[in-house]
Amino acid sequence: MQLFHDRFQDWVVMILPSGGFFTLAGWLLLFNWLKQRKEKREAQAPLALGKEAV
Questions:
Q1: pTM of the model
Q2: CB-based burial of residue 25 (10 Å sphere; 0-12 exposed, 13-18 middle, 19+ buried)?
């Protein structure tokens, strides 16, 4: 019993969706890391200048 036609490329179906999810996860990790880094620097900036944090 054949489920798919003769020209069906099974590896493309296996690779593309997971590659997209890994790429999306990589972008999310990068942007979250950059956001946390910026927030950490902004929180430390007043302390470095000798001012109290608001």
A1: 0.55
A2: exposed
